[in-house]
Amino acid sequence: MISDKTIGRLSLYRRVISEMLAEARTHVYSHEIAKACGVTPAQVRRDLMPTGHLGSPSRGYNIPGLIQSISGILDDPEQEKVAIVGVGNLGRAILAYFMGRRPNLTIVAAFDADASKVGRMIHGIRCYGTEQLADVVRKEGVEVGILTVPARAAQAIADELIGAGVRGLLNFAPVALRVPPHVYVEDLDVAISLERVAYFARHGAGTRRQERAMR
Amino acid sequence: MISDKTIGRLSLYRRVISEMLAEARTHVYSHEIAKACGVTPAQVRRDLMPTGHLGSPSRGYNIPGLIQSISGILDDPEQEKVAIVGVGNLGRAILAYFMGRRPNLTIVAAFDADASKVGRMIHGIRCYGTEQLADVVRKEGVEVGILTVPARAAQAIADELIGAGVRGLLNFAPVALRVPPHVYVEDLDVAISLERVAYFARHGAGTRRQERAMR
DNA sequence: TAGATTGTTAATCGATTAACAATC
DNA sequence: TAGATTGTTAATCGATTAACAATC
Fold this sequence. Notes:
The structure is a homodimer of 215-residue chains.
Chain A lengths: L3 H19 L4 E2 L1 H8 L3 H8 L12 E2 H12 L5 E6 L3 H10 L6 E8 L8 E2 L2 E5 L3 H8 L3 E4 L3 H13 L4 E4 L12 E4 L2 H14 L9 E2 L1
Parallel strand pairs in A: 3-4, 3-7, 4-6, 7-8, 8-9
Antiparallel strand pairs in A: 1-2, 5-6
Helix pairs in contact in A: 1-2, 1-4, 2-3
Chain A binds a DNA duplex (24 and 24 nucleotides) through helix 3.
């Protein structure tokens, strides 16, 4: 089992070497990836082990091959479907950002309790009423849910998504969701992050600030 | 020096016990906080050590006292000022969320390159043009910056903020910022988080899923 | 070849958990 | 008192880094 930290870094590595590929580069050394991502070269080499991709001591890693190997781990060979619940400012920001960006990880439906949004297309995605949530999630085979709803609604929505087959949640609501053990939850809590930044801005970033505090 | 993880959990503990206080409760046990936050009771007790607040074996922790002790660590005795750069959907979502919520941590200015936004009040915060960034940050004494700008603009904006005295950045742009060692950066990378959730949704949440993956 | 980089193990580091005497 | 909880140390656990033979 690959750790969540390694998965996050592989995603980051893929992004930076994709940019290199766009500049027509063909090979890259671990220390270059390391510098671009704010980690150590040893970390990069170790993270790349589970991908099975081998570099060469003389030329480093072949970029297209490495992208393919990382994608072999990160991407579903089929297609993974995502639904987003809550189409406020935050929900729309996420919809706008993902507009046709990842072919293997697509947002297929949006949900909102606000009747004025239901039935409309928002950034190319159809918006349904929350009462249709379970039906649509089941029919589409959605596996991942993004929660951008108010805190008070989050647990009920999470329960419904999970009941309809969702096994991963990206939760922006400032509450600790209770979920069965087979469901993976990642919390992106902006308020907590901001308090942390404020604390370390005041108290000094600290020696350990080589490391990226990536959340 | 308290670790970033501990700071994040203290912020979470304060939130949940504040909710208890609102329900007129006066005392709380470590295992109650632990359950509400998805951590172990031992973790809670250990995290509370640096606050200096002492509980009682018979009644647990006094809630108002504990809130005060946690706030003594998390909050600046003065006031800490925050600026947000980039008033798109994401920026507005954050402005709306923080509207008058934290007296000790206030967003005092917003900036955007879009001339049509400049001069307006957005969720109660004045929006300036980016060319005024350094001046306003210096004059207001802003210490923390939130970056909700496109990736290509992030490094230049970060440099300018830091040049004007900012020592902490909450970065939503999908780039690894290069900053001097005294500056604390926390990255909230939605794309990476979503890929991580997708991966663990597919591969099983794993045994280690007791722990909250809080970012 | 000489020199830099790779894959991979062993050592280190830091954070979490278990344990338990002291306490109410 | 008896029983549960506290503060705190020691043991455990996992992740990062250092090191180095193998390789190009």
